[in-house]
């Protein structure tokens, strides 16, 4: 089984294994100050992200990967902050993906 991931306007199929789970974190900004972040469809904040990732990490093995999907307004600093938090809990396999501009 695979998960489609959009990277640089190309779709890649990321394989899923029997003993692995891929975490998908979506990050969208609304205006200058409001943002929406979800980890596998559950709302999280920067304050709760580390705890949520640690909870998932305790249930999973070393093949866990995180796919970080940010919209076109997500800043480099925000994405790096998410990557650092994931690394702190031992998730080193990371993919950064973007969403195409949807006519906004």
Essential attributes:
104 residues; alpha/beta; Nucleotidyltransferase, domain 5; 5-stranded mixed β-sheet; 7 strands; globular
Structure description:
This protein is α/β, with parallel strands linked by helices and 104 residues long. The protein has a single domain (17-98), classed as Nucleotidyltransferase, domain 5 (2-Layer Sandwich). The protein contains 2 helices and 7 strands. The chain has helices at 46-59, 76-88, and strands spanning 2-7, 10-15, 22-30, 34-39, 42-44, 65-70, 93-98. α1 runs parallel beside α2. The radius of gyration is 14 Å and the shape is globular. The mean pLDDT is 78.
CATH topology: Nucleotidyltransferase, domain 5
Q: Under the CATH scheme, which class?
A: Alpha Beta
Spatial strand order of the main sheet: 5-4-3-6-7
Question: Helix share of residues?
Answer: 25-40%
Write down the overall mean pLDDT: 78
Uncertain segments = none
Number of domains: 1
Task: Break the fold down into its secondary structure elements and pairings.
Blueprint: E1 2-7, E2 10-15, E3 22-30, E4 34-39, E5 42-44, H1 46-59, E6 65-70, H2 76-88, E7 93-98
Helix pairs in contact: 1-2
Give a nutshell description of this structure.
The protein is of the alpha/beta class and 104 residues long.
